[in-house]
Amino acid sequence: MSHFAVEQLSPLIAEIYASVASPTALPLALRRLEHLLDVDLIHLMVNSHDQRQTLFQVYTNDAFLPAAQSYGEHYSTLDPRKILLKDKPVGESYRCADYFDDQFVSGNAFFQEWLLPHGGRYVGGGCIMRTSRQNAHLAFHHFLGRKPIDNDKMAIIRLLLPHFVQLLQLREQTATLREQAAIGMHALDHLQYGVAGLGDDGELCYANRRAEQLLAQLGGEIQARGLQRHGRLYSLLQQCRLGGHAVSYRQQQTDGTLYCLLLPLSRSLLWLPDASWESTYTRYLLILNDSRQLRVAPASQLRELFDLSPAEARLAHALASGCTLDDYAAANCVSVNTVRSQLRQVLAKTGESRQQDLVRSLLMIPAL
User: Fold this and answer.
1) At what angle do helices 299-306 and 336-350 cross, to 10 degrees?
2) Residue 332: other Cβ atoms inside 10 A
3) pTM
């Protein structure tokens, strides 16, 4: 069995590493490993450092899932195997049969009250992560009625543990990158500017919500997958590539102007080591702004930020949107003197001394 298993480990190890990019693939890879090693259950568990909270876990045998809840609620703290693992280095293997004989098992509450009644008995595995935030363990189980895990299987487990140590390190790193990317994407979608990513040949790699709207206004400059080969923007991209610096473009619309800024990404931002791969990824940013569109923080947001009254907040929002004092007074059926009095209150509460400074300041606020 051990020779047969070792021959098939390489593709399974590859599947385990591939689960970093596709997390849902990990349970399937572990189930295949369970079958290959002829064990009854493989259990991967990531706990908080104090062991009170399970952050992530995979059980390959669904029949054991009902037992998992009671383990987490009470018996996890009684598990002598965990106490044993505290003193073992990360990546070092162990098997419980070497430490807990039948006499120990017969008098231990964890074995007698939880593990044996749920069909468990022998385990081999080890700690695969230990940080200030969390611990992780990998366990290979033989259920009640089977013999302890033998030396051949333990040799394979020893071979596998370093790969699982590396797997969790990679998962941690990619989780951080995914979180950062999600934050960045969310922020981009709330900008009043359009932001689009272009490849080396003008192919469209990414566009935030505003860019999707503004790109439609470029007409013949845009085709289904990116920049039109014979368009002005495509020519500017070639200019940007050759010169290595940003270039600007302005397109007149029937009722406004669309401004475009095309700039190359710094090579220090690229993570691919092989330059021949770079053309399929974002190499340029296209920043778009429509002079007809101006996102101003709503009155409710200005009230919250500066403790304005409802009338003061409405005035501040109107001024930031381009309204004059006279127009605002006429639209709201109040005197210009009343509006000027409200403006003085707004200036005092916002800390600005002049109307133009107030407007400039309000336009800098990210609008909800």
Assistant:
1) 50
2) 13
3) 0.63
